[in-house]
Amino acid sequence: MLQTMIAPSVPTATPIDAQAEQRLRITAGLVSLGVGSVLLVFKFVAYQLTGSAAVFSDALESIVNVVAALFALGGLVFAGRPADRSHPYGHGKIEFFSAAFEGGLIAFAAVMIFYEAGHALWQGILPRQLDVGIAITAGAGVANLLLGMYLVRTGKRCQSLTLVADGQHVISDFWTSAGVVVGLVLVELTGYAWLDPLVAAAVAVHLGITGFGLVRYAAGGLLDEEDRELLEKLVQAMNTAMRPGIVRVHNTRAIRSGRFTHVDAHLVVPEFWTVKHAHDEADAFEREVIAAGALSGEIVFHTDPCRRLYCSQCELPACPIRAEPFRQRQAMTVEEIIQPDRPW
Questions:
Q1: CA 64, CA 223: separation in Å to the nearest integer?
Q2: Are residues 45 and 157 in the same domain?
Q3: Percent of the chain beyond pLDDT 90?
Q4: Same-domain status, 177 and 274
Q5: Which of 95, 208, 310, 315 has its CA 20 to 30 A from that of 126?
Q6: Containing domain of residue 270, as a range?
């Protein structure tokens, strides 16, 4: 079998586009940090005015938002550094560390909120100036919703896990604020002080689930867990880029490191091709797959001879070793391209 090692491809975006994407990431990180800091001040003002455990839980989550945004900004700067000899796949994995850190902060905030809610429930403290607290919390919640949508959209556009995770957390903060507003309205209508810490406890449960989910997702990325979405994108691009002589693909492994994608795969080609011909065709196929999938990264192909096992699916004209006529090429599936070597 031939081993065709293909040099890293030129990203689908030009260097200028890559720099523009990095500036967009940094800008989004700065926006997140700035808006989060302002909202933190407003929420703690609301807590000082109301003394509400539920408002305190919302304010505590804002502290997490600001610290996480600061950490995320550092991660975005580091992740944007190009690959080097020490880090041949780039520095994008730092984004998984950032997401794990944010998830841990969220879980810690959940524990603190539980403690404060228990204290408030035991003391039976009735919140004050509820109208002001409701107005500030509602306004901050809407601001968080808009900020979160912006971060998620920017993160998906720039293939940044850090921004997506930060945006999803900020959106979860909107639902936290919404729950706090409902709780404060119920306290104002009923006069039941115990509703306030109950809402705070519900916020803590929500945050605990969110934090665990972020840590779990980050761990999957750090351990190179199978990325089904990426594989589906790859197989669609491969089917689009198929050409006569590129028979099938199998034993595909793919990982992401920030915006950089690395793929290893076995490529079946006609057994009578020369090494040079197989390399040139594999090189061209790699470029077309990356273009069709709008990927930035590299594909390393190991070429396998066809051994006349795929004649019915190979439309190569004038094949001198064809064992049976061509019938129809079947579109490849994710299950096919990840299968290991076929026994000969």
A1: 25
A2: yes
A3: 33
A4: no
A5: 208
A6: 227-337
Domain count, the chain: 2
Q: Alpha-carbon distance 90 to 78, whole Å?
A: 10
What's the CATH code of the domain at 235?
Answer: 3.30.70.1350
268 and 176 in one domain?
no
The answer to whether position 3 is within a domain reads: no
Same domain membership, residue 173 and residue 24: yes
CB atoms within 10 A of CB 187: 24
pLDDT of 4 strictly over 70: no
Q: How many CB atoms lie within 10 A of CB 71?
A: 20
CATH of residue 196's domain is: 1.20.1510.10
pLDDT for the residue numbered 64: 80
* Radius of gyration from C-alpha coordinates of the chain: 27
Residue 140 CB neighbour total at 10 angstroms: 26
Same domain flag for 133 and 243:
no
Encoding tokens for residue 99?
A: 């997401």
Nearest to 101 by CA among 125, 58, 126, 70: 70
Mean pLDDT, range 240-266, rounded to an integer? 90
Kind and range of the H or E element at 249? strand 248-257
Say whether 134 sits in a helix, a strand or coil: helix
CB 245 within 8 A of CB 267: no
- Tokens for 241? 């880029």
Query: Hey, how many other C-beta atoms are within 10 angstroms of the C-beta on 196?
Result: 29
The whole-model pTM stands at 0.67
Alpha carbon of residue 288 to chain centroid: 25
In eight-state DSSP terms, residue 307 is T
Question: Which amino acid, 313?
Answer: Q
